[in-house]
């Protein structure tokens, strides 16, 4: 092992099992997000079952997926930037965090228009 990687503890606390568990839970929560997505319903020509609050399923579960599956990357990115050693955590966080903000903002804006229209 080289000296550069001798004290390689930036991934302390990370395990394959942790990432696997996060993946499967995020995957399971993504299925209803896609199923209740108005765009997917339109593209595939179906209507998802409706219940009070069903229009918020994609926004709420999408946020849960990001928080559960993505925060490990955000925290890792902060650690890498603090150490001045950017790596894969920063790359993944930079790719997902802005997109989540845009998607969440768009989703909330769309939901607000729907709510205000029916008042």
Derived from helix and strand composition plus strand pairing, the structural class reads mainly alpha
Strand content: under 5%
Shape: elongated
Q: Regions with pLDDT < 50 over 5+ consecutive residues? A: none
The count of helical stretches stands at 4
Q: Give the fraction of residues assigned to helices.
A: 55-70%
What radius of gyration results from the CA coordinates? 19 Å
The total tally of domains equals 1
- Largest beta-sheet characterization: none
SSE order, one letter for each helix or strand: HHHH
Measured between the Cα atoms of the first and last residue, the distance is 66 Å
Mean pLDDT, all residues: 75
Structure summary, number of beta strands: 0
Structure description:
The chain is mostly helical. The protein has helices spanning 16-35, 38-44, 57-82, 88-117. The longest helix is centred in the last third of the chain and has 30 residues, at 88-117. The protein starts with 15 loop residues before the first helix and ends with a helix.
Write a short abstract of this structure.
With 119 residues, the protein is mainly α. It has helices at 16-35, 38-44, 57-82, 88-117.
């Amino acid at each position: 092992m080289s000296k550069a990687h001798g004290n390689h503890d930036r991934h302390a606390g990370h395990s394959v099992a942790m990432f696997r568990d996060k993946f499967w839970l995020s995957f399971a929560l993504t299925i209803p997000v896609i199923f209740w997505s108005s765009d997917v319903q339109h593209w595939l020509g179906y209507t998802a079952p409706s219940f009070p609050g069903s229009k918020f399923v994609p926004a709420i579960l999408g946020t849960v997926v990001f928080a559960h599956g993505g925060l490990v990357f955000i925290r890792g990115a902060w650690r890498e930037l603090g150490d001045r050693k950017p790596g894969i955590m920063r790359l993944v966080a930079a790719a997902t965090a802005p997109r989540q903000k845009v998607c969440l903002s768009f989703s909330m804006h769309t939901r607000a228009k729907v709510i205000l229209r029916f008042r």
